[in-house]
Structures are given as structure tokens and as C-alpha cells.
């Protein structure tokens, strides 16, 4: 009788453990979290050389960016733990995944695709959407987790948000506007009716778009509101100046890679202005210039507005005619962390 009792307890614990193994963004300790942000530091910070793999970390339990005890190429940090769910479960027919990057690993990258990078994985309960700025990342599922040596030089940002399954049909449509360079995916049959557009992309088809751009309100699993701005290549304009600043009704300070010859100057020609950040300072202090930083983010100039967006596109004339997007929120923790990171900007 006692042995039978032990057996029942073991079976019960197994099913409890199995039911709790939901797909989610995972924090630095491997626990499910509503969202997290990683700011990977550049290898050069004001001419001082670093490792290129150190990063700052932020999630709902952290009041400001904190230096991680992990490095970004380790599977023990939040990024590695989150993506390990993909590398350990990509053969399952009970979940969907998609990896996209305009500069994919191991493949050539024609510019006809959107300037956008990300990873999705979810089942019929919930999952995550990771958007980031790292070329050649992440590796194919068969390769296991690693971080590319090419991603060490510049600063990079990565945003992971956990969503319930009901949000992924909307996200599916946003992907169509982004026109992602999908390089690996799986959409099992049980999901194809709900996320038909994502299934088309996975099959190598180009979904028909109703408009030139799309704005969708998304809710994280814990109820945090995020706005997804997604523009197609047919919307030929700087996303920050022509759309996001005007839609949010606020002046924006924009951090993007100002390394190219076609960078756009600060712009005050429309009702709401957009100004380029030229220097970033994270806690530590970790200070670097915009051309050392490949990340793309913006914050409202006015503290009262508290808008913060992270995304895909640089303020560059060559990217005005490419798909890409931003994910925005008025989350106080995220806004304060990024607003304080703005250490200098260029007026119009």
C-alpha cells in the first residue's frame, strides 16, 4: 500500500511539473517572466575596450538596469535560458516557432526583406516574441544556443515579451508587414487556421497586405499593454518621424546606429519632433557613442509622456523603403531606465 502511495505521488508530481513547463520569457534564474530587456554592451566604450559579451538586464522586478553576472554567449543567462526552450523542443508538433533575421546566420541576406530580427515560440497556451538587433543570431535549432562573434563589437538590445496564445494571430499579421527574412520555422497543422499568415510566411509565400502599415495593441500575459508598429516597404518614410512620434503625440529622442553615410539628421519639420541621441550612459557608468551602438530605441522627450519603444530600424534613408517596426509601451520601469541612459542628443 505504501509503495502504491509513493507511486501515485510520483505520477502526480510528474504531471504537475509537466503542466508548469509553459513556454515563456525566462529571467536570469530560469523563472517565467512577463518581459525582459537585455542591453548588450559594445566592445569599445569611449575608446576603452571591454569583452563585448557583458550585458545589462531589466525585468519587472528590477528598478533599473543591472549588470548581469552572466555573459550573453552563455546559456545560463535570461537570453540563453529562454532560447533553450526552442533548442530543446523544436521537433515537437505541439508548438510553433519562427526565426527571422535580415542578416541570418550561415546564409546570404538580400535586402528585399524587412530590416527586422526576431524569434517566436508558442503553444496553444502561451509563448514569447523576442525582437532584437543582433545580425547572424540566433543559430539554427540544430546548432544549439550560441552568440555570434560578429555581435560582440556593437551595443545591441533584445526585448522578450510573454503573450497568451490569443495574441499570436495579431502578431502573425504584424509579421506580414515586417516582411521578415524567415530562415527556419515550424507551424504544425493544429495552428494553421489561427495563424494563417504566419503559416504562409513559413511556407515561403508573401501574404497580401491591406494597407502600407499596421498598428496593433498587444497585451502581455500579465496585462501590460504594448503597441506594435509595423510598416511595409511600401510605406516609404522614416518610421520615427513620419509615424511613431506623430501617432504617440510626443517628441522623441532616438538611439539608432549612426554609422552609415545615409543617416538622417534630427527632424523638427512636423508637429512632433525627432532628435538623434549621440551618447548613451548606462549604470556603472557604461558610456558609449551612438556609432558604437547597433541598438534601435526611442523615448519621449517629455517625462510626463513616458513612451519607450524598441525595434528594428535605424534613422537611415536607405531603410525608409524597407519593412520594420517598433514595440512601444508606457511602462514606467522601462521608460525611466532608457530615459536615464540618454546622455546626449543633437537638436534640430
Automatic annotation (TrEMBL):
Enzyme Commission numbers on file: 3.1.22.1
Catalysed conversion reaction: Endonucleolytic cleavage to nucleoside 3'-phosphates and 3'-phosphooligonucleotide end-products
One GO biological process term: apoptotic DNA fragmentation
Range of residues in the leader sequence: 1-21
Superkingdom of source: Eukaryota
GO molecular function, one term: deoxyribonuclease II activity
UniProt entry keywords in alphabetical sequence: Hydrolase, Signal
Enzyme class: hydrolase
TM annotation in the entry: none
Family, per entry: Belongs to the DNase II family.
Stored PANTHER family: DEOXYRIBONUCLEASE II (PTHR10858), DEOXYRIBONUCLEASE-2-BETA (PTHR10858:SF2)
Protein name stated in the entry: deoxyribonuclease II
Organism, as annotated: Phoxinus phoxinus
